[in-house]
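User: Batch of two.

Assistant: Item 1 of 2:
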Amino acid sequence: MKNKNSKIKLIILDAYGPVITGGYPATCKFLAKKFKMNWQDIYQILYKKYFNMAAERKITQQVAWEMATKELNLPLSVGEVEKIHYGLMGLNTKVLNFIKRFDKNIKILLLSKNTRSQFSDVNNKLNFKSYFKYVINTWELGLPKASKKTLRYIMKKFKIKTGEIIYIDDQIDNLAEAKIMGIKTIFYENFEQFKKEIDNYLKYEK
């Protein structure tokens, strides 16, 4: 497809949700159903509290699992919780096949904030990095993924402006700073909705 909107030069895809299925929301929902808990309460502790600390190098990934499992009083070992987490993951083949159709002048960046160990473990399982020429894991930069600092780093690296970017994430909070900066955003809910919104942005000519 030819991109009629030549202003778009970079599409940022969040790793979990749009590209990798499962992840923390799926893990929290699985645990909530199994132990009759509120999944959002689990999410606030497991992801918002402890994983974010690990992603910003404040604690290790292992400590994050240990502290979350203890605080949630889960009747499982850390190893069992991790096994559930990784076992729920897969690749979103619809999205991966769809982005192959993008104009070659548009760069696709996979953006993640995983600790080095988890990033490596998931890639060993799914080989997701093989689908992307450009990959940034913000843990390596010591930056919060959705921060203005990270977005400015990306703009400098690719020599682009805010109006030339589309940022896609399945967590609406991660899009807040991008919106303030004037970056086009898509809150990923499902493939059809994502496809419709990105087509509207790019105004593709088939």
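Item 2 of 2:
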Amino acid sequence: MKQHESMVYVLGILLLFVSALYASRLYASAESDYELGLQAYKAGDNTVAATYFESAMEQGMESLSLSYNLASSYYKLGRLEEAKAYFLQLEKSDEMRDIARYHLGLIAVKEKDVSVARKYFGLVSGDGRDKKLIQLSDKHLESLSVKENRWRSLVSLNLGYDDNIYSASGDSVLDEADSFYELYASGDVILSGGRKDGWLIGAGLYGMDFINTDTNDQYNFLLRLQRAKKISDWEASFNINLSKSTYAGDDFQTITQFDALGRKSITRRDRIYLRYRADIIESDNTTYDYLEGWRQRARIEYRNYAARNIKHVYYEFELNDRGTLVTSTDSYDYSPLRHTIRGVYTQILDENWWLIGDLSYRYSEFDASATADRSDNQWKFALSADYRIDRTLKLFAQYQYTDNDSSMDRYIYDKSVFKIGLSKLF
């Protein structure tokens, strides 16, 4: 009996020794990753630095310097949301409060949120203890008071090729390919407050013009009134949009839309989004009267941000109350009930190159009618490569494949679209 107890005691001592040795090795590994991160950070390789800092943190290392260096790496990479989350944590520390607030002000400047930038620079200027940061904050406050950049705009120009512009079945005479030009431009201005808590008004233009045919050209013009507001720990925006579109050179639709979006951080890396949109659709062309009515969409989305990748997935539910489509052979109510699941994965190769994979599935079920029942299963896959010259200028190329299967033969099709383009944020 005593011999058995002695063996148990010895085994316990061995287990404690092994556990302590394993823990020390983990800590040593975390320390080495942190040191490698510092070397990469000092060399200006912020992508590699963030990866090592993340690794050290995942292995259990916790320190203010680690959190600061990871936040700073994210900031220099333009990963502002992740940087902001860490700096907000660092703001709670007496030791790091000034520098955290200063960086939160810099992030607000990049996000063109003047009111938030003033808030943080003002806190450093009024309550800070670091003389250098106080001087820098005063300069920023002076600059912001002299010139407020309340305007923001985006312009994107693309050239593309569509191998099935009418989304027609493969054996249809409408199965036609063509190249196209694509333009998107939008802009908004702050009426009062800031972009995170204020009133904004904006406008947008979208156009797609095919080179060899005019029968599928599309243009859309939009006006928007937006109220952005912080509600507890949610960032919310409420929009009223009015859009008017043309198709093949003729009037098409007028849509009045209410759009509500909420965003919440659940951890330093994870976000959840909720969105609801309601459309009142008016037909401006008797040919498309069957599309007139209302549409409602509700979405829940999850996003995860890491040092080298971004993952997000969402589910969307759609309800419609529209008209009836009548053809020479059949007719059916055009009020689909739809379920959509979509996942997007972004791989950040370095500070310039980003690769994006996008996969979605949509199921559509149309109301039963006397002559035809219709349900569709649609898969979409897209692969994109972005070259980010700087935070405001981007070159990109994209391939997208769509496969639509339907219970009605005329709606069975597949298509491939290639695009290259340039976008600029002002």
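The two ends are 81 Å apart (CA to CA).
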